[in-house]
């Protein structure tokens, strides 16, 4: 067990996915975690899970983490500021500016409130889905305001680091504009795009490929949670949506009247700017220049993929990422294996020598047709 | 080597990704494949690849496949109809109505033209990326028109089946409306969304998660090809885009004036319709009700994933799909394993008994926060 950077008791209010996951992670580090939930049954579940203990007389938490739905967050932060006058109170809601404004408006002691936002989650919520490791390697945004002290920032930073996250400092407004771009507008666009399929003919879903699956995947998210998030971040979201709509209008105009001056240029600019935008996103898809991808053909038979991975291990090559492409009904799949560029050529030769069929340097994900 | 359903010579005009891949696949089946390309160097490359041979005096192809860029397709189909009066001519372009209209307008012998569209591709093009198996398990749309005979349909169906595809019959217009929905509009939306990132602050990309990566991945596609596709399918695409924009206007209005009558309902409807739309898409993400997903924690050490897959094989369970989630910098990853529901409970118990840590029934892909 590693020692926690955090010292003292931590109180977590709300034992859903995030609250319970934070509790589990802190308990692994030996921190004394006090859990609270208005539902005794939900509280019991999180305690049984090992995420912490019930409150007891004499508790004196140094840090309170409010981990409830966005539209209950300001209420509970205010209540905790009152109840624990010696504690720093933070929250984990995915919007920040409106919560601070709400607390300020109601005269809460915002000098002891420092909002934060761990950019982690899962498609299903609730304590049952909690896991100590969902924060590993994820950004944890800390949003200092005019009254925040360096010691308070260090405390939330210690929390983020204890959970394996990367702390990132942004003002509440910067945070809200950033998540509008990377999370809230993509959610709306994915939902609107998926909704369009409801008007299509019965043949349409059969033609769906990985491109459509990827662009619409997050449309499966929880509507109730998202209504709260979008409602609370309406101004930054509408600003991005309006710019998106202007661009969209330009595309529609160019398609409707391709002979108009500048129409082809506008389509080309849209596609090129899309190329440039996606290149800014770090991570596994498309733009991760750190790795080279080998695509290996794998028969759809038990043990074949295990044999491939065993043989990659025998070659002493570390696999950075793996994705399996497997068409329904096909007797064959493709394993896309990301490795450091230095190892790619050697591994390709070794695998071919071992009898594997592979296509070097390609990506089967997605189609341009 | 399996026997081909196709009989006679096949001539392929254009030796890019699709033409060369079709040639490779047909050669594997022993079909006599004649290749043509206006560039002698490109032709040589495809022949060296094993995709077919050069034309020779006395060639008499039963089938000609035109596999060139969309805006050259009608020209070359017309030329091939003239040059091979005994052959059926097809093409593989991702738009169909405008090509048929163009051929009809110029008086080509459209009674011998039957368009088709293999829904397959890769992110990189060219003969070098060709692979005989890119059509396996993919839809291959066949678009009969008023003059098409059943024998002609059977010939293109034999081609699709020979290459491992699933033939789907649609009229040219049905095809164009369907691909507008599943491919062309998603491309535009992904490009516009990715382009919005260019206006964001420097902190934005660091906050990107899997949701943004997935929604924007196809924005990395080739602008030149997509200008042709969008230009040739402008009417169906603008129809879908206009409906999308109307929905978007409704969302913007609801966010700008949340107190307006119906505003919350409109947001909820948008999100719920997104849920319903994504549920229509078959495949691996989110909505594939055929399988249950086990998420297993795997240490980032050589051989660990191979050991997991070997042990799954030892339990006699067939893995339907696999995805590895691995955060940059994290010492741990998650293997998401899709299995038939009947096997999920037993496999979960067996893996836990073997010491694996797992979260049952969840998906780590994406975040709601």
From TrEMBL, chains A, B:
Pathway(s) the chain acts in: Amino-acid biosynthesis; L-tyrosine biosynthesis; (4-hydroxyphenyl)pyruvate from prephenate (NAD(+) route): step 1/1
Regions crossing the membrane: none
ACT domain segment(s): 293-369
UniProt KW NAD keyword: yes
GO terms classed as biological process: tyrosine biosynthetic process
Top-rank taxon: Bacteria
Prephenate/arogenate dehydrogenase domain residues: 8-289
GO molecular function, one term: prephenate dehydrogenase (NAD+) activity
Pfam families attached to this UniProt entry: PDH_C, PDH_N
Enzyme Commission number: 1.3.1.12
SUPFAM superfamilies in alphabetical order: 6-phosphogluconate dehydrogenase C-terminal domain-like, ACT-like, NAD(P)-binding Rossmann-fold domains
Reactions catalysed, as given in the entry: prephenate + NAD(+) = 3-(4-hydroxyphenyl)pyruvate + CO2 + NADH
EC class name: oxidoreductase
Assigned keywords, A-Z: Amino-acid biosynthesis, Aromatic amino acid biosynthesis, NAD, Oxidoreductase, Tyrosine biosynthesis
Protein name: Prephenate dehydrogenase
Protein family per UniProt: Belongs to the prephenate/arogenate dehydrogenase family.
The keyword rRNA-binding is assigned to this record: no
